[in-house]
Description:
CATH class of the largest domain: Alpha Beta
Number of domains: 2
Distance between the termini: 43 Å
CATH topology of the largest domain: Purple Acid Phosphatase, chain A, domain 2
Shape: elongated
Largest sheet: 8 strands, mixed
CATH superfamily of the largest domain: Metallo-dependent phosphatases
Helix content: 40-55%
Number of strands: 16
Mean pLDDT: 89
CATH architecture of the largest domain: 4-Layer Sandwich
Amino acid sequence: xxxxxxxxxxxxxxxxxxxxxxxxxxxxxxxxxxxxxxxxxxxxxxxxxxxxxxxxxxxxxxxxxxxxxxxxxxxxxxxxxxxxxxxxxxxxxxxxxxxxxxxxxxxxxxxxxxxxxxxxxxxxxxxxxxxxxxxxxxxxxxxxxxxxxxxxxxxxxxxxxxxxxxxxxxxxxxxxxxxxxxxxxxxxxxxxxxxxxxxxxxxxxxxxxxxxxxxxxxxxxxxxxxxxxxxxxxxxxxxxxxxxxxxxxxxxxxxxxxxxxxxxxxxxxxxxxxxxxxxxxxxxxxxxxxxxxxxxxxxxxxxxxxxxxxxxxxxxxxxxxxxxxxxxxxxxxxxxxxxxxxxxxxxxxxxxxxxxxxxxxxxxxxxxxxxxxxxxxxxxxxxxxxxxxxxxxxxxxxxxxxxxxxxxxxxxxxxxxxxxxxxxxxxxxxxxxxxxxxxxxxxxxxxxxxxxxxxxxxxxxxxxxxxxxxxxxxxxxxxxxxxxxxxxxxxxxxxxxxxxxxxxxxxxxxxxxxxxxxxxxxxxxxxxxxxxxxxxxxxx
Length: 540
């Protein structure tokens, strides 16, 4: 594989081209992907797939690395790849204590969303495969690699994912790939199994996958213990968005009771870009580990300390205080997302244009007169009124909530704030061009200069208001966690799981984090070494 010409930067999620193309990919995947299930075609057309046997690992047991949400920017993706590729990695908690020696995994499992912002052959090669190839070649490690598709991998109906990970003859980053479908099962040192499923953007399990899982369950011993890899943390989604509850929890329960016919000992997923572990009285683990390279998600929102069925939060990374502190960076939204300012600039310019088309010089004597005249024009002029309704509908749709009243109140309030700011800027631009510059109201020069002022200032003011809205939403209401932190593109606080399946049947899970990843050069003096977030031991 030829080296890319430059290292990938973190995705600018609010950049207009990224927003537009992501919307198209999501719409296409949801409309067409659900009606043309690639998993069915894949299962019928590919070679038969059984379970993969790693049960004879010897006296040292078997090591497996689990990494999810990768392939965003080079810095965090390569930092994780370089750390897990080291043959021996000794870690301790930041508070000190015993040093835990760990080894690079015999198997590497990608837990979902292997590339951002959308999948393609070039994107996988540039953003994901190249950082891992560099790390593996530097340390001489070559684990077997398996991958679970996440929602971003499904944006092209799994075409690029299947080409990248489901063709064993191709390999990935110099490593052997063995799966021929988007789901798989690994037989590990007794009594453990690792089973990974594919939910295709929230769909039900397809019939070929159900039959595959039934055959895997039939091969398990009566005392088998299961680690289940799923594409998203449904236990958190159903807590934050109750509409998820009927589908999400029910599907996992059906999987345990009717398909695998045994309880799952540990659920592992990514999708949320941080570390979070819940445990119940029976010792069942529900672990979110999505810190493999994508932008950081907050840990203080949404609020999910206690879940149904007695699951209690035992650990998070980074801590809530750090998460709340980082959220304040939204006040720098215009500086962090300069390309995104085109959108509010256009919104403000068009809003001012529609409003001013119905106003005369007498309506602009004071700001109060301008506001009253603009409101009256919106009621009289159908085009003006429809524009305002469209703007409000857009902000209502954007609002992150499952409560209709909150969506309406929050969306309308957000829209009114932007429309009010646009009106203020339009009035000020008119006064500046007519009184300070002495231009004739309604003249071409006055209109062009006033429009340019509104456009330029509207981008900055709109960016500030959007950042303030996201800050209030995530800090006060625990909402918009994705938007509030994707805008920040935080490269740091990355992590992955290192699992050791001992010959005595003990599973030890090491959650390993990196507070600050190296910036470009690996000898960045401000970078911090990997440390142990926590160690979880599960007996057979």
